[in-house]
Specification:
By secondary structure, this protein is mostly helical. The chain has five helices and two strands; from the N terminus they run H-E-E-H-H-H-H. A two-stranded antiparallel sheet has the order 1-2.
């Protein structure tokens, strides 16, 4: 399947958190690695959605803009739209920009990315 890139981004994010960000007392210790992990996981989500959008003949030209993905999912699946919004808030904003260090928030972001990527894989399988 063409979601290898999305999976690689997600695995890199997990690895950064586990090996570099260092969990201690419910928080990660290194903001730099949390930011990198947040960006990587978020890109994994967007890569997966890009594949689904292409498969659905939805135009994905230009820069990655959350609004394009939100519009697509608003028509395709409202539950996944909420998952995308959660991924945006946790992975992109909280982790990627703010460098938020709270372990359970970061882990929820990673789980959200996993759910989205798995869902996209199922959608692509169904439409074969």
């Amino acid at each position: 399947m063409k979601l290898d890139n999305a999976r690689n981004y997600l695995e890199n994010a997990k690895s950064l958190l586990k090996e570099k960000a260092i969990k201690k007392n419910g928080h990660y210790q290194y903001k730099k690695y949390v930011r990198l992990a947040g960006h990587a996981a978020y890109l994994g989500v967007l890569e997966a959605l890009d594949e689904l959008m292409k498969h659905s003949n939805y135009s994905v030209k230009g820069r990655k803009d959350i609004v394009k993905y939100q519009e697509f999912l608003a028509h395709y699946n409202k539950k996944m739209l909420q998952e995308l919004n959660d991924a945006y808030e946790i992975l992109h904003l909280y982790m990627g920009y703010d460098g938020g260090l709270k372990y359970i928030f970061c882990q929820e972001g990673i789980k959200t990315a996993e759910r989205i990527i798995e869902w996209v894989e199922k959608q692509l399988e169904k439409s074969k």
